[in-house]
Specification:
Strand content: 5-15%
CATH class of the domain at 130-317: Alpha Beta
Distance between the termini: 143 Å
Region (Disordered): 39-91, 310-340
Shape: globular
Pfam families: ATP-synt_10
Oligomer: single chain
CATH topology of the domain at 130-317: Glutaredoxin
Order of helices and strands: HHHHEEHEHHEHHEHEEHH
Protein name: Mitochondrial ATPase complex subunit ATP10
InterPro entries: ATP10
Radius of gyration: 32 Å
Organism: Hyaloscypha bicolor E
Number of helices: 12
Number of strands: 7
Length: 340
């Protein structure tokens, strides 16, 4: 008779169906690896902007393009401040040396230089063949103040004889401003179709009768040092043509305008003139590009009148400070005392 050394288990005892520790660890490691391989959810698609399809000096070349009216506001999300976008490097020599030997910053600089080198030189001129370089059509009405975006700060030399560089933000604050931005004589002529005395005398009458609430501002962007020097040579002629009152409203800007600012504001072609209507908070309430077409000129005049009326109403509703009110009441009482 053969006897087994293993103890005979009774039938009431069932085998444990749980996996051993090694199997559990293998299952855990496999599931952990699979969880790690799961890709993160893709971010929500970025809403298309009003200038996404417009031709630019960089990127893919566009052979056919039809400008469309601005359906949404353009500009920067943050209000401008004096001292921004000056193009002046505030770093010390030690900081510049540290940044020069920093490999990560070197990669960023190399990427920027590669983008500039790869930009075709005649791309902007070729884009001028499509609707004379017009990037967009003016909106049918003003952008709402709550949703409007901001116009950036520019820094440059004015026609004043002190030759001091100034910021545009202090000039644009608390004023209704029609701002013309151009970089060449061709672009200046395009912007003149919106805001010059010859092409839009009604607009000048509205500005003249605004009581100092509205103004005309011109910004000449010349990043080329030689062209900027030529503009400086012709500044005496510009002073005679514009008049003494407008010397401080003409800016010659050379630096500080990045590609991000150009894309946000709509300055997509340096050979094209652009016109902006700003309120007292430096918000872009209306914009036009290239030569004036259709009823864009009338829309600019209507928008300027409406902003002037809004500013007049706002100033009337503004309460008088308490000290001035007390002074006026005291003066009234003193004037009424002798009569009694």
């Amino acid at each position: 008779m053969i006897r087994s050394r293993r103890p005979i288990r009774p039938a009431s005892i069932k085998f444990d169906s749980a996996a051993c520790l090694l199997c559990q660890w293998r299952a855990f490691s496999t599931s952990y690896r699979r969880l790690a391989e799961i890709e993160a959810p893709a971010p929500p698609p970025k809403p298309s902007g009003p200038l996404d399809d417009a031709p630019r000096s960089y990127g893919k070349a566009v052979s056919e393009f039809t400008p469309k009216p601005l359906s949404r506001p353009i500009g920067l999300p943050n209000p401008p401040r004096p001292g921004e976008n000056t193009g002046i490097d505030p770093r010390t020599w030690r900081q510049r040396r540290a940044d020069f030997v920093d490999y990560d910053k070197h990669l960023i600089r190399r990427k920027v230089l590669t983008q500039k080198i790869s930009t075709p030189y005649f791309r902007e001129w070729s884009n001028m063949r499509m609707h004379k370089g017009k990037s967009f059509l003016a909106p049918p009405g003003l952008f709402k103040r709550e949703k409007a975006l901001y116009f950036p700060n520019f820094y440059g030399q004015t026609l004043l004889k002190d030759k001091i560089h100034r910021d545009t933000t202090p000039l644009l604050e608390d004023k209704i401003s029609i701002v013309s931005v151009f970089s060449s004589a061709w672009a200046e002529n395009q912007a003149a179709t919106f805001a010059s005395q010859k092409n839009n005398p009604e607009l000048h009458d509205v500005v003249k009768n605004s009581g100092g609430l509205a103004q005309m501002v011109q910004i000449n962007v010349e990043e080329n040092a030689l062209k900027a020097m030529i503009v400086r040579l012709f500044m005496p002629g510009l002073r005679k043509r514009l008049g003494v009152d407008n010397w401080g409203r003409y800016f010659l800007v050379r630096k500080g305008i990045s590609d991000q600012i150009r894309d946000a504001v709509g300055l997509l072609n340096s050979k094209v003139g652009y016109t902006y209507l700003l309120d007292g908070e430096c918000k872009i309430r209306w914009a036009g590009s290239g030569p004036c077409e259709g009823d864009e000129k009338e829309g600019l005049v209507r928008g300027t009148r409406r902003l002037i009326e809004e500013m007049k109403t706002k100033r009337k509703e503004k309460p008088t400070p308490l000290p001035q009110r007390q002074i006026r009441e005291g003066q009234t009482q003193k004037a009424a005392a002798p009569a009694a």
